[in-house]
């Protein structure tokens, strides 16, 4: 006989989280009805701004004639640094980043004035008419040159553990060399844009495409010389961000607000793609000098690396980026004795900034490059060298503490790699590829298996906090507002799922509104892969308070005890009664029960000592691994990704469909960084790859026909939101496998007896250069 399930069992079976629910704006995206900043209906009297840009990489401005700009068609006003009423600065940490250059320009593309006109086109045309005279100064363009000149935007940092020198002396083998890994343009679909609308009593509403509304609020308030409560920043959604709109949306927000405050009229500043790429910072490129000692089996005994980044002309976020690189040099490997140094090179280029991974990928690729070299020297499969050096599984092994002192308590890399090794048929494919290469003189295949470990939390402890508001209306519908920003990654969908789950409602009963500094104050950037973790917890806290109030009220009406009340399937189950959620809400309103609440969350247990570079900076780690198979034409350097297998640890996923999409997108984006996306500055210091015609992101034809992506079945050991794990940045490390598969194919030209000198991005030219270097070693077929 079947007994009816108890409310407890029914509640356990019902869930709004863990389901592959569609993105909350998916239909709007497809129909073209999703409102982005430039889609907002313009108010009467709206003007349009453009920026006048420096034409020199490093120079003093000796004269600036803007008369032709002012006289141009449609121009209403022109503003320079002297016209800024408050602070001329938009630096997020160090105040070394002027909104408008005053008398010194430090890169080609640095803004020096704002022109405001009746149309976007008139403003852009007028900005080109300025006559500026310069006294040119010596320019530093590369991280290598910055290191040679000891030119830094911040003091260099150093992390050491053990006795590296003694470990090197005992090591049977030592590998040393240099590596260069280029930067990457964020290339968001929606460019930088800000729409500033003056309000009464020195108020300013700024509608801005930004990952950090609170930072924009601060910058605008300082630029205008007013308090933060005079400024409201709102962002409903972005057409992509990838870190490029974390700090560097500040310039655009401030410039539009300055003009709007001066003219008492709405001003929109929308960057043309070329201007956007000329002005804004990119992913930091890195130059490495490394030295690693290892034994006959391939076990790493000592590791030394010196990393220099191209920070650009100002500090921006380069310090935290370099810190994360230092903390991710170990990747998945236990390094007993290390000496890790990082410096933020000051160069006369765009001030580089956040980009998905935030230094983590740049730190981890160095140790992977070294392991690739160790394996080739020992004539072993690189996967076996990786397995040998993995962090231990528990305290008993004594190999589970990072160089910065954090104990790893959630290590699943062994199980994850074992699963992918089997599902990808790695060993058999390796044998098949070796046979193919023996028989093929021109086309060479390559195969690589790379793992990842990525720490989740902001480097700066105080940023790991979030707030949210949840409103339940009398009809039973729910509105949620939180401090995270939606850039296509699905944070609103996940937060809505969390709230719906907490209140026992279907997802369609919950709606998320635009991020707004007047609703949730002092928010952190949606960055560091923490968006859903932090804001999901804050929204859960708010919804829980409402649920508990409703439960207390329900037992007054129907009896029982509040702890036994269950919320699921749009009903409240209390003491044998099943009451529709909306019905109880209506009764609760009449009884004056508070139906809204704020929520707050601060990640516990975090610490970091910047002086010693030690502590517990991460809440937990996400893991993953990928296998890539490529074919390379050794006569032209052309290549193709034939198959990719990826397995990613999203913990107990909040939304598997969204998470799988994030892994797929990160894989292709990271592949672009390491292969096709080349940044190039000419001799005059101008970025020449500043448009889709010259900067090559991957297209659909670059995706593998055989693309197998899965989520690893796991449950976060930390009390994250529903035991899920972040999925924004970590999977960008998965396409390391593509880069090393290309290197493996090149290596086969010399029967894997020569280390191919391959830098990133591995463009066809770079590949051909590496092939020729291997052939020149005299061991080619």
TrEMBL record:
Keywords: 2Fe-2S, Iron, Iron-sulfur, Metal-binding, Oxidoreductase. Its EC number is 1.17.1.4. Gene3D superfamilies: Aldehyde oxidase/xanthine dehydrogenase, a/b hammerhead (3.90.1170.50), Aldehyde oxidase/xanthine dehydrogenase, molybdopterin binding domain (3.30.365.10). Residues 31-138 form the Aldehyde oxidase/xanthine dehydrogenase a/b hammerhead domain. GO terms for molecular function: 2 iron, 2 sulfur cluster binding; iron ion binding; molybdenum ion binding; xanthine dehydrogenase activity. Pfam families: Ald_Xan_dh_C, MoCoBD_1, MoCoBD_2. InterPro entries: Ald_Oxase/Xan_DH_a/b, Ald_Oxase/Xan_DH_a/b_sf, Ald_Oxase/xanthine_DH-like, AldOxase/xan_DH_MoCoBD1, AldOxase/xan_DH_MoCoBD2, AldOxase/xan_DH_Mopterin-bd_sf, Xanthine_DH_Mopterin-bd_su. The keyword Iron-sulfur applies. Its cofactor is [2Fe-2S] cluster; FAD; Mo-molybdopterin; Mo-molybdopterin cytosine dinucleotide. It is an enzyme of class 1 (oxidoreductase). Belongs to the xanthine dehydrogenase family. NCBIfam families: xanthine_xdhB. This is Xanthine dehydrogenase molybdopterin binding subunit. It comes from Janthinobacterium violaceinigrum. The lineage of its organism: Bacteria, Pseudomonadati, Pseudomonadota, Betaproteobacteria, Burkholderiales.
């Amino acid at each position: 006989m079947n007994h009816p399930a108890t409310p407890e069992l029914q509640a356990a079976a019902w869930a709004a989280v863990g389901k592959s629910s569609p993105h909350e704006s998916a239909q709007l995206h497809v129909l073209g009805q999703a409102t982005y900043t430039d889609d907002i209906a313009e108010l009467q009297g709206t003007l349009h701004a453009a920026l006048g840009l420096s034409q020199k990489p490093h120079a003093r401005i000796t004269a600036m004639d803007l008369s032709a700009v002012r006289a141009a068609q449609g121009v209403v006003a022109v503003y320079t640094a002297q016209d800024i009423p408050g602070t001329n600065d938009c630096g997020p940490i160090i105040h070394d980043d002027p909104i408008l250059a005053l008398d010194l320009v430090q890169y080609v593309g640095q803004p020096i004035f704002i022109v405001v006109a009746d149309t976007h086109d008139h403003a852009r045309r007028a900005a080109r008419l300025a006559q500026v005279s310069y006294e040119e100064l010596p320019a530093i363009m590369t991280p290598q040159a910055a290191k040679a000149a000891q030119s830094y935007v911040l003091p260099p940092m150093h992390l050491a553990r053990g006795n590296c020198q003694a470990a090197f002396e005992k090591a049977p083998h030592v590998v040393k060399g240099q590596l260069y890994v280029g930067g990457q343009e964020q290339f968001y679909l929606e460019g930088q844009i800000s729409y500033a609308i003056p309000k009464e009593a020195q108020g300013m509403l700024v509608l801005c495409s930004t990952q950090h509304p609170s930072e924009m609020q601060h910058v605008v308030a300082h630029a205008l010389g007013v308090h933060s409560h005079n400024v409201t920043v709102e962002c409903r959604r972005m057409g992509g961000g990838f870190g490029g709109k974390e700090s560097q949306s500040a310039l655009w927000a401030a410039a539009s607000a300055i003009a709007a405050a001066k003219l008492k009229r709405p001003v929109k500043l929308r960057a043309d793609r070329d201007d956007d790429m000329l002005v804004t910072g990119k992913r930091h490129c890195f130059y490495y000098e490394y030295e690693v000692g290892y034994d006959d089996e391939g076990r790493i005994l000592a590791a030394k690396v010196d990393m220099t980044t191209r920070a650009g002309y100002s500090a921006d976020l380069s310090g935290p980026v370099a810190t994360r690189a230092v903390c991710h040099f170990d990747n998945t490997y236990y390094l007993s004795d290390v000496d890790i140094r990082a410096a933020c090179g000051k160069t006369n280029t765009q001030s580089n900034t956040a980009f998905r991974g935030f230094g983590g990928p740049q730190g981890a690729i160095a140790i992977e490059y070294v392991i690739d070299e160790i394996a080739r020297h020992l004539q072993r499969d690189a996967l076996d060298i990786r397995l040998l050096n993995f962090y231990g599984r528990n305290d008993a092994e004594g190999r589970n503490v990072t160089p910065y002192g954090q104990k790893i308590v959630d290590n699943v890399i062994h199980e994850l790699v074992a699963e992918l090794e089997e599902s990808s048929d790695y060993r058999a494919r390796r044998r098949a590829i070796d046979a193919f290469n023996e028989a093929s003189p021109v086309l060479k295949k390559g195969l690589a298996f790379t793992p990842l470990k990525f720490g989740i939390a902001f480097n700066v402890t105080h940023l790991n906090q979030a707030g949210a508001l949840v409103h339940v209306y009398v009809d039973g519908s729910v509105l949620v507002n939180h401090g995270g920003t939606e850039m296509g990654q699905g944070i609103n969908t996940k937060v809505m799922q969390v709230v719906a789950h907490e209140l026992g409602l279907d997802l369609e009963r919950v709606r998320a509104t635009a991020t707004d500094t007047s609703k949730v104050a002092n928010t952190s950037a949606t960055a560091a892969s923490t968006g859903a973790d932090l804001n999901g917890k804050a929204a859960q806290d708010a919804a829980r308070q409402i649920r508990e109030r409703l439960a207390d009220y329900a037992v007054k009406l129907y009896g029982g005890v509040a702890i036994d009340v269950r919320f699921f399937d749009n009903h409240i189950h209390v003491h044998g009664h099943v009451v529709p959620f909306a019905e109880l809400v209506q009764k609760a309103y009449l009884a004056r029960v508070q139906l809204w609440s704020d929520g707050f969350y601060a990640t516990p247990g975090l610490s970091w000592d910047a002086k010693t570079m030690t502590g517990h900076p991460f809440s937990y780690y996400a893991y993953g691994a990928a296998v890539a198979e490529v074919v390379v034409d050794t006569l032209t350097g052309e290549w193709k990704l034939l198959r990719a297998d990826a397995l990613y640890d999203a913990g107990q996923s909040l939304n598997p469909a969204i998470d799988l999409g994030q892994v797929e997108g990160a894989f292709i984006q990271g592949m672009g960084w390491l292969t096709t996306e080349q940044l190039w500055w000419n001799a005059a210091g101008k970025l020449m790859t500043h448009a889709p015609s010259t900067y090559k992101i991957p297209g659909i034809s670059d995706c593998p026909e055989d693309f197998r992506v899965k989520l690893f079945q796991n449950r976060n050991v930390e009390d994250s939101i529903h035991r899920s794990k972040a999925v924004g940045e970590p999977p960008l490390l998965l396409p390391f496998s593509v880069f090393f598969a290309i290197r493996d194919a090149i290596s086969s030209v010399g029967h894997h007896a020569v280390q191919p000198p391959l830098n990133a991005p591995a463009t066809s030219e770079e590949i051909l250069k590496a092939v020729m270097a291997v052939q020149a070693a005299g061991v080619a077929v």
